[in-house]
Specification:
The protein is mainly alpha-helical. About 80% of the residues lie in helices and about 0% in strands.
């Protein structure tokens, strides 16, 4: 595995996106442990895209305008739904309480998973990204792509957990200031909307 792959993958993972946004919001509202769950869900959500890239299904998605647009529409609607839930204080920035510490683990994983699975650009990205780091003379290219995918997922999880840990450090200060929390909800909702618009304008 080349250092170039590790460096490129790290840069890609560090770049802010829907997964980072959701993990940060979860850490601020429910603490570090919940953000680890969110990071796991986000990482799990890229697995189908990698499988699609490795098996060639992503190429079919890229070739089919209807399939791409259909998945893109679902992704946009889900991001707008996340924005609405955030504003209504029932989404990613819904503050957990001592009476229900485990209420949202399954929902958190599902929400994080859906954020990534409904983004068709990820399948196309991995279809273009992974083969660049497989040698032309590799006797087992599929195995190499599986190994690269596993490393990319591990990096994703570790980086997202790090984002969550940093956000959790300032959680108590933010929760102690209701006005700041309100503005943060609006900012995160706006970010979800912006990402939805970006996805809506995305081309194959």
């Amino acid at each position: 595995m080349s250092p170039e792959f590790l460096l490129t993958a790290l840069v890609v993972v560090l770049a802010p996106g829907t997964g980072v946004l959701f993990t940060l919001a979860t850490a601020l509202s429910r603490g570090w442990k919940a953000s680890v769950v969110a990071a796991f869900g986000c990482t799990l959500g890229i697995l189908p895209h990698m499988i699609a890239a490795i098996t060639g299904l992503a190429a079919l998605l890229h070739a089919s305008a209807m399939a791409f647009q259909g998945m893109k529409l679902l992704g946009v609607l889900y991001l707008l739904y996340m924005a609405w839930m955030t504003v209504k204080e029932r989404g990613a920035l819904s503050v957990d309480t001592a009476q229900a510490p485990h209420r949202s683990m399954g929902r958190t994983i599902l929400a994080a998973f859906m954020l990534n699975i409904l983004n068709p650009k990820l399948s196309i990205f991995f279809l273009a990204f992974l083969p660049q780091f497989v040698d032309a003379g590799d006797p087992t290219p599929l195995l190499s792509m599986v190994e690269l995918s596993a490393v990319f997922m591990a990096l994703t999880f570790v980086v997202f957990v790090g984002y969550g840990a940093c956000a959790a450090l300032v959680r108590d200060r933010i929760l102690a200031q209701p006005r700041v929390l309100t503005w943060m909800r609006r900012a995160f909702a706006g970010a979800f909307v912006a990402l939805g618009v970006k996805l809506a304008l995305a081309e194959r």
